[in-house]
Amino acid sequence: MKSWLSIPPDSDFSLHNLPYGIFDTAEKPGPRAGIAVGDYILDLAAAAGAGLFGKRRFFKQIFEKPVLNDFIALGKPVTNRIRKKTLDWLTQTHRPAEADALLTDRRSARMHLPLHIGDYTDFYSSLEHATNVGKMFRPDNPLLPNWRHLPVGYHGRSSSIVVSGTPIRRPKGQILPPGSEDTPVFAPSQRMDFELEMAFVIGKNSTLGEPIPIEEADAYIFGLLLFNDWSARDIQRWEYVPLGPFLGKNFGSSVSPWIVPLEALKPFRLKGPKQHPAPLEYLKQSKAAHYDIALEVAIRPENGPETVVCRSNFKYLYWSMAQQLAHHTVNGCNVRVGDLLASGTISGPTPDSFGSMLELSWGGKNPLTLADGSKRSFLLDGDTVLLRGHAGAGDARVGFGEVSGRLLPA
To answer: In whole angstroms, how large is the CA radius of gyration of the chain?
Structure first.
């Protein structure tokens, strides 16, 4: 495909991508919908007003809303048609006369949280991550008996999910001081961590009491974004038995501003790891449902250069998105447009592919050395964590941009 618009080689936002986000500019304030392409954003509200999609008034009103929920709720026949019409406009032989009025320099835009997130669920779906964590705390029994039978998950806090660039404050809570086994103190977390994750956006309401069959999962998944589930490991360790994560997780999660449609990722589907024992019938997959998406995490100290500390891949997940959604709803739990379901930490098979500081430093025993010579067992105040991801390469690259967050003092 060729476009009259200049798109840099290896841009995350190629013609094969066309992700959706919410943005505004100083010249034209007011959050509205856009599609990223190369170094630009197509202003969808302005494009609708110019008649690119038909039904001018209807689509202009949809795209002037501060979140994408109402657009997503129109359904894939409509959202895919908007994507196709955008592609047709970008691949005309000559530059359209209205191009300057509809395109915004992406570097001058301010990005917003693209969704109203009603509910958020976090899974624990990486075999390597679950095994690594288990080895640290249960060396003789790393994986609990249920792990290979179901996608473990918990209901998280949607109110503290923020868009890339929003700082995160170091949380305070109950932690066990060194040498104590049962007497906590109230203090700032000393073991702040990132978690390399991806999340998928629900694009269709389901009915309470009716499970979503695994073969229908794609119809309910609108798209994906990068996700950093910030974690306070010391708070988490003291609180998680018997009911699981709470204050160690709910103080903040960061998402990338661009939602990549599931359709853009279809060329990168592949089969996942062999599952043993075979899952129960409702979790059995008849088609490839994993995705080859290269991921990386970098840490940038205050006033210092960044260091890439992890390179992993979405394909390493043991439980696929389809299996996660099928399990989430098998008891009749309903999902709604804009709900977010995150993968859990995505760790690979080698030490440089571990998706958290907990694993990379092996519980703090093996500190990392950054490019400026400083060492990290866990994150320090002033550190900025950056997650990036992409599938494919060259002019067929489908990327997610990045999600960044700076850690502030307690």
So the answer is: 21
User: Rounded CA gap, 409 and 167, in Å?
Assistant: 10
Report pLDDT digits (tens) over 265-288. 999 999 999 999 999 999 999 999
Give the DSSP H or E segment for 78: helix 76-90
Note whether residue 318 is domain-resident.
yes
Same domain, 32 and 153: no
How many C-beta neighbours within 10 Å does residue 349 have? 10
> Active-site residues: which are they?
129
Please give the order of strands across the beta sheet that includes 32-37. 103-105, 40-43, 32-37, 20-24, 110-112
Residue finishing a domain among 85, 112, 139: 112
- Asked if residue 30 belongs to a domain, the reply is yes
CA–CA gap between residue 49 and residue 319 (Å, rounded):
43
Residue 398: its H or E element = strand 398-408
Quote the number of domains for the chain: 2
Q: Are residues 402 and 301 in the same domain?
A: yes
pLDDT (tens digit per residue) in 118-171: 999 999 999 999 999 999 988 888 899 999 999 999 999 999 999 999 999 999
Q: What is the pLDDT of residue 248?
A: 97
Confirm whether 14 is domain-assigned.
no
Confidence of residue 300 (pLDDT cuts 50, 70, 90): very high
Query: Domain of 331?
Result: 120-408
The number of residues making up the chain comes to: 410
Give the start-end residues of each E strand in 229-351.
231-232, 253-255, 260-261, 269-270, 290-291, 294-300, 307-313, 340-342
Domain co-membership, 159 together with 214: yes
